[in-house]
Each structure stands twice: as C-alpha cells, then as structure tokens.
C-alpha cells in the first residue's frame, strides 16, 4: 500500500466516523447534496431545482396553521384487520410497524385551528404510512373531518397522498370511495368550501373519489396524479404516453386541475381562496 493510499483511507475513516448519517439530503430531482437543516427550513423543497419532497402531516400543520397552533382531532375507532389478512406478513404486524415508525394511528390525520384568522379543519394523508393507502381508518377520518367542519361551519381542506385503496382490507377499503363521496355531499349541502391539494403521489381509489371532487383543485409542482400507473395504461392501449403524463403541470394544461402552486406560496393562496369562497359579512 502506497503512502497516498494510507492517507486516503485514514481520511475516509475519520470522515465516516465524524459525519452524522442524517447531515445531508440528496435531491431526487437534481441529485444535489443539501444540508438537511437547510432542506427542512425550505419546507422539504430543493433550493436548487425546486423539487418538492414528501412531508408528513405534522410538518404541514406546523407550516399552515396560524403561529403553528392547532389541535389534532382524535382518530376514529375502527375495526382493525377485519379480514384477518396475511400475505408475507400479518396485516396486524404491518400496522404495528407503521405506527411505531410514524407515531401516528393511520395515514390520515385531521387538525383544527386558526388559518388566516378563520377556524378551519385540515386533513393530511401521510404517504410514509403504508403508502397513504385508504382503508377503514382513512375513510372514517375523512368523514370525521368533514363532519367536524360542518359542526364548526368551517372549510375542509384535504392534502392527498396515496397509492390507492388498502388491499389488506379488500372490499371494505373500496367502500370508502362512495362513503367519502357522500360526506362531501353533506359538506356542500351545508354551503361550506371543500378544497383539495394534490401532493405526490395521489393515485388509485383516492384519485377516483374524494381527491378529484374539490370545489377547487390545487396541486404541488411535479406531483404524480392519476388512477392506474403509466405502464398499465400503456400496456392496455398499446401506445406510448406523452412525456410528463400524470404530472401536475400536464393535468393543469389539460384542464384536470385549477392551479399548480409551489409549497412556499400555498398557505397565502389557500387563505385568499377561502376569503373568496367564504367572505366575512359586514356588520349591519
């Protein structure tokens, strides 16, 4: 071994030992290495290319609510593992692992607080919890969020992120599609706004139900939005799909959504929309 190789190995050993594993984040878009602190302060958006990373429900609530002050609504109690499902693992074990990792009960969390000075209910799906998949717990949480909004005469804003229905709950997960659609009808009958923010990715049964029924449809830049996957569609129609198909910008261009808003501008845009949809009446 040469002197140069000895020095190089020694330096590598020192760097490996003294550099924390979570100090850097590699942007999936431009592959730039970013300090994690800088990345988190920028709302998990790459400062170089604008790639929007996935974030959890608590991080969104902290950013959205006035002064970061909110209260989380208790998750509804539902039947767990109703089909006693098992694949390579028991469904009960998968749930336990997801809860331990995330600290949350399931993939959809609702919170209530002041948002632009107005009482608002916001729901957020977390893709890190079993792919944000929709089962009994997600459907029940969505309905609970809608009914809380009706009780408080406030808007309901949902941030979607899902791979679709939760296969371990079979037909029970698919039944959440008409169930959540009926809940939206209750909100509209009450004359309250329902705003959807589509985040990466929003697919499957979630897209086929409550994700595309908003009074206003907003998406974050670059978000994947669709029902079936691109490869499935291509194999079905036997044609090559255009570049950017199922991305937020493509959907905006073809009239599927109303706007694409960067995360840094999202809070102010939502507040402006709510002021338009629910104007405060002047005192007599």
UniProtKB/TrEMBL annotation:
Record's catalysed reaction(s): N(6)-carboxybiotinyl-L-lysyl-[protein] + acetyl-CoA = N(6)-biotinyl-L-lysyl-[protein] + malonyl-CoA
Source domain of life: Bacteria
ZnF bounds (C4-type): 27-49
InterPro entries in alphabetical order: AcCoA_carboxyl_beta (IPR034733), Acetyl_CoA_COase_Trfase_b_su (IPR000438), ClpP/crotonase-like_dom_sf (IPR029045), COA_CT_N (IPR011762), Znf-ACC (IPR041010)
GO MF entries: acetyl-CoA carboxylase activity; ATP binding; carboxyl- or carbamoyltransferase activity; zinc ion binding
Protein residues bound to Zn(2+): 27, 30, 46, 49
Chain ranges of the CoA carboxyltransferase N-terminal domain: 23-284
Biochemical pathway: Lipid metabolism; malonyl-CoA biosynthesis; malonyl-CoA from acetyl-CoA: step 1/1
Cofactor note (record): Binds 1 zinc ion per subunit.
PROSITE patterns: COA_CT_NTER (PS50980)
GO biological process, one term: malonyl-CoA biosynthetic process
Keyword tags: ATP-binding, Cytoplasm, Fatty acid biosynthesis, Fatty acid metabolism, Lipid biosynthesis, Lipid metabolism, Metal-binding, Nucleotide-binding, Transferase, Zinc, Zinc-finger
Pfam families for this protein: Carboxyl_trans, Zn_ribbon_ACC
Catalytic class of the enzyme: transferase
Cofactor: Zn(2+)
GO cellular component, one term: acetate CoA-transferase complex
Principal location: cytoplasm
EC number: 2.1.3.15
Compartments in which it is found: Cytoplasm
Job of this protein: Component of the acetyl coenzyme A carboxylase (ACC) complex. Biotin carboxylase (BC) catalyzes the carboxylation of biotin on its carrier protein (BCCP) and then the CO(2) group is transferred by the transcarboxylase to acetyl-CoA to form malonyl-CoA.
Record's subunit section: Acetyl-CoA carboxylase is a heterohexamer composed of biotin carboxyl carrier protein (AccB), biotin carboxylase (AccC) and two subunits each of ACCase subunit alpha (AccA) and ACCase subunit beta (AccD).
Protein name, UniProt field: Acetyl-coenzyme A carboxylase carboxyl transferase subunit beta
Species: Zymomonas mobilis subsp. pomaceae (strain ATCC 29192 / DSM 22645 / JCM 10191 / CCUG 17912 / NBRC 13757 / NCIMB 11200 / NRRL B-4491 / Barker I)
